[in-house]
Amino acid sequence: MSFRDEAAAAAVHWKHNTMLLPAAARGPGPVKHRGSYDWCLPERYAHLNVLPDALWSFGWFRTAAIAWHDSIDGGPNNHLLSSQVQCVNALTPMAFNPDAIRRTFSGVLDMAEPLAVGTPEAPDALVAFEWIGHDDPLGEWRGGPGHRGTNNTSVDAVIRYRTSTGDEELALIEWKYTEDYRDETYNAAKLPLRLRNYRRFLDDPDSPIRHDVHHADLIRDPVYQLMRLQLLAWQTERRDSTLSAVRVVLCAPGRNNGVHEALPDRLLASAPYPVCDATNLVELWTGLLTRPDRFVYLDTAVFAESDAATSEEFRFRYGHLADNGDDPVRAIAVCRHGYSWRAATLLYRENGGPVQVLDPWVEPLGFSAGGTLESEWDYLDERVCDGSGGNGYSYEIDAGGFTTLDELQRWAAGIDADAEASAPPLNPPWQPQPIENASWEAAARLTRRHPQLLLFESHQGGGTADALTFVDRDRPDWSRCISLNREGSAHISPFTTTGSNTKRWPTLWAAWIADPDRALLELESRAVLRTPTSPAPTIAAACYRLMANTITAAGEQSRWEWRNGMEDT
Can you give the pTM of this predicted structure? Predict the structure, then answer.
């Protein structure tokens, strides 16, 4: 399977399993003059190509008249493999998060402090898109100001930062996803014009590109793109005295050979030794520069790894970027709840072999109708892949890839160690009264601070959950809710404009019992609830306060519950 086929399969999987898309958006979508494909959204839903935490980009693009590639109705395209959309989805959420920027790029850039780029549409943002420089640095603008994103050299993204020595630098980011340039050819008709546009920069004694290279051989993508970006970086560094360096950063998947093996044949033939022996694009381009330190490469797998600074939804959609296929052991852990999550059953398969159970994590399962280990694996694996975990059930699912069984055992033991460490020194697990009490205290506080919340009792997962669920009373639905499962985790779908994928907080009850004030603030933050403004208490809030005080006063030595009433006739 080619990298592009793999990416398309991942896009289709996300499309049919994400919680962000309505049913009508899961059908095929058209590509210009090429039919309809499952890895495209229907055109009317193209705006959903941009993930919820990247929605700031819409305002920025509109304000600065930035062009979306193959735009539909002035917004993004419907192509789930769009590199521009992936770049926006990855970097927009970091625009006001300096720690995320630093964590992501510190491996290739000397970045001590990210700085605002200072573009008009978002002067305080740490990222800008489709940047073209100032005052026509490459002589490309025709009849007025340049147009970001089209008809002149545009950088996919740009970041500014202070180095460890106190200097300020700029990084120009070229973003690739599924592009394949291996079949690109030299365009004889356009070559003279393109060469003429940049010849004065290439012939300049201080040019960043070596002079012992036949410049006409550079005019083939993706080298032609890198050439223009490197010239833009050089001219920007020349003109802006506040910058000590401007570097080009190529962000591309490490496994996309359509980028890394796209070596123009004529360029290899004319390049001096040892550049002529380059085996990949990064090696080739670095060898063609007079200052190789002005170019770096970042594998976009860093955006999809489990500890990446990107959102859970981004990693769900683009997780294949970080899949190197090197792990011979795959495992699925079914975790049960005491005061925290412990590993109960551990299924694994080695080198694609039969499913086995790893001792001592051997509790019976019984999820699938077939009852075999293979059918149990298939049932659980679907829920790992669709990002839904236990779906509010009294169990949760975790999974991973490992090089050895010993590594797998250490991972499972780590789950149990975390559970033991987070258990509060209160009643033993078979006495759930502290969690019952905590749930009503949470209900009283949340409804007092957020009167718009409507509370009801819910039992998701075929009755296995026992939850207090909060929704917006003006728009009560599961896409914006907090569900506090007293048999398991908190499941949180943020109260944002568009809703978001559900995220779980497995240690809520341990956190609440340890420090209710801190846990409440954390819960509000995760749910993106507006900052409370001391509203007048509602009748509902007063009732929940009375219920919380009553059940707490009853003590923890016997079992007390508040339940919905029902007359069964």
Answer: 0.62
